[in-house]
Known about the structure:
Elements: H1 3-16, E1 43-44, E2 51-52, E3 60-64, H2 65-70, E4 86-91, E5 94-99, E6 115-119, E7 122-123, E8 137-144, E9 158-164, E10 172-180, E11 184-194, E12 199-210, E13 215-217, E14 222-224, E15 227-241, E16 244-257, E17 264-265, E18 298-313, E19 317-335, E20 345-363, E21 369-389, E22 398-421, E23 424-447, E24 450-451, E25 455-456, E26 461-478, E27 481-492, E28 509-522, E29 527-545, E30 555-573, E31 579-594, E32 598-603, E33 617-618, E34 632-633, E35 643-648, E36 661-673, E37 677-688, E38 691-692, E39 700-701, E40 704-716, E41 719-726, E42 734-740, E43 743-748, E44 753-761
Parallel strand pairs: 6-9
Antiparallel strand pairs: 1-2, 3-8, 4-5, 6-7, 8-9, 10-11, 10-44, 11-12, 12-15, 13-14, 15-16, 16-18, 17-43, 18-19, 19-20, 20-21, 21-22, 22-23, 23-24, 23-25, 23-26, 26-27, 27-28, 28-29, 29-30, 30-31, 31-36, 32-35, 33-34, 36-37, 37-40, 38-39, 40-41, 41-44, 42-43
Protein name: TonB-dependent receptor
Domain TonB-dependent receptor plug: 53-158
Pfam family, one: Plug
Amino acid sequence: MSKSSTVRLRALAGVALAGPAAFAAIPALAQETDASGGLEEIVVTAQHREERMQDVPIAVAAVTANALRDNGVDTTRDLPQIVPSVQFTRSGASGLLFVRGVGTTNAAVGEEGANAVYIDGVYMADLGQTINNFNNIERIEVLKGPQGTLFGRNATGGLIHIITREPGDEWKLDGQLGYGNYDTINARAYVGGPITDKVGVDLALTKTHQSDGWGHNVTLDRKNKVQDFAGARSKLVIRPTDAVKLIIAGDYYENHDNLALGYQIDPGTIGSGGQIGGRTPTGQSLGWWDATLNDYPDTRQKIWGVSGTLEADLGFAKLTSISAYRKTTNRSSFDVDGGPLSLLKIDFVSGGKSIQQEVRLASTMPGPLSWQLGVFYLHNEATNDSNFSGLGFAPLLGQHIVADLKSDSYAAFAEATYAITPTTHLTGGIRYTKDKRDFDGGQANVTAAGEGALTKNPMTKLSYNKVTWRAALRQDITPDINVYLSANRGFKAGSYSLQSPLNSPYLPQTITAYEAGLKSELFDRKLRLNLSAYHYDIQDYQVRSAATAALGASVTLNAATVKVDGIDIDFEAAPTQHLRLFGGATILDSRYGKFGGAGATFQAPIIYPRVVGQTQATTCPANLAGTKNPGVFFPNGVAAGGYFTCFGDVSGLRTMNAPKFTASFGASYKIPVGETGQVRLSGLYSYNSGFVFEPDTIARQPRYSLVNGSIEYRPAEQFGFELWIRNAFNEKYSVQKISSGTGITQSAGAPRTYGVNLNFSF
């Protein structure tokens, strides 16, 4: 570690370990309380075994099903509102997660992302599978920082683990029927219980149908931003003996929407052909969720999978085997330029399927030493068949792109924790990963005479070997307070961009993370306060860029280095039996250390003539940092619009989707009514200081805040009536901005939504 990195880490550690007294005045409340009114213990599986969250030397945010329900967080896109260190971007059929500023914005098929998503121990190898409508959730664990040993697979920034419910010893039926604005119907149901004393089964169903759009497409006179989602998940749990448990699970989802593809030209910019963002062709103002698209955008996804989990108590250790098969198909069509002219359209059919197998052995014997070891295998296949068309390709009619990528990943890992003393615990782990890629892809020009010959990428095979590791030291100060130090190495393999098959493959990304943390439970477990400070050194950071790709496509580049410094705060408290508060904050400084080959897009033109009669001229600076526009000049100031590309150095600029400050604060209060009834009041506030979408920092999201709330009356424990609202102040913000040769387009986040639910539980 460099001297400057050491200084930064010590400074951050000093803030994080300054002690709970500095934050004890913060009003915070737990998501759950025990019988005495204090905070209940939260048990997590962050280290592949059940442990108290407070004993794990990892920064973990655990969100229970009740906290999700009470605060209106029912999809992956809402998770950042309750976990500030997480950012989520939706791009087409893909969900892109950032944890502590680390992630990838390349949403093309075949990209796995820099933060791993697991559901019940099964890795989601396709980005479309990260878009989840929560239903039968027990809890969600967010592991912050690289998890390169026990999980390993592409967990360079962190990991999201969704744990679903299992059928219990008694039959359970609960659910929700709801109606909201935009003519939206929601229905959820869960039923589960024992068939025999050794066999249990459950079924969870989810349905959302939104008939009215968030906005209007004025060009096509059609609704913009609509969704139709349906899903089912089931588990069969068999316990033939007290020492053996077998879980057979399956899930199926269908999603039809244009929530992410209903683009409009970014307000304040000019697209090609003089199309002005935020306005109709006649100059009238557009609503934030309206569009002028000449082609109707559409995404149709089908996702399904099956898995089998075997757990066996061998006496000295627990054996766990997880086998899974998953498949995704996607048909999408969208108007990339965002305007009423037929400049750039993409139609594509993509898919992915994966097979995975993991076997773990974890010690169960008492003593100062605990250990576990395992092996992991993943085979993943991704296919892409895309047709690009529009006047932007003139004199061509367009391009046809086909690409297939097969990946095989093999890993072996081991980790052990030794209690040096009853209060001092040392953890060490190591993982060896071998990734192999087999690629076949190319593109062909399409003219009036037909499709030309396919030009293929001559580079077809990649292979990477990497050793990652982890070391952590935890010191218990009291039974309720401990501190820890850790160092971790994470790895994400290099690959190909299936939307730009002729580009060279990008290099692997590695991250070395240093962290210091404090975990505490105070005032008879009325307050839980956890802090962490961290520094990351990232090599060959994988960054999406449209500037170096074919028109409308994207490609992944490697920034030489990225430096990340940050502080996380998570707190919960239970000052009274009925009042619960919780929240957190993340302070983040994530910048490119060295990135000399980035492409930047600049608005064309500046509207004044440089020299009378001069044709278009551009001047590109060598250093793009802080440059707003190097200057594009047209004769007589004719605003033809569009963008042009400069290449230069963006070293020192902030990285993508890495806001300087994010925070959330939630509260829930229950008022007893009569002998069996109650009224529950819940609210959630989240703040984001703003961030950039691309390396050049030109496409930005300014600061914004979201407020959710709900009121539920339960005359009896079995049923209740709920009024809810999300984004109560109708905040206008973007979840995605993408630049191309035709301009910058933006996809708007959800507007104010509200409705009524009937909740039931038997």
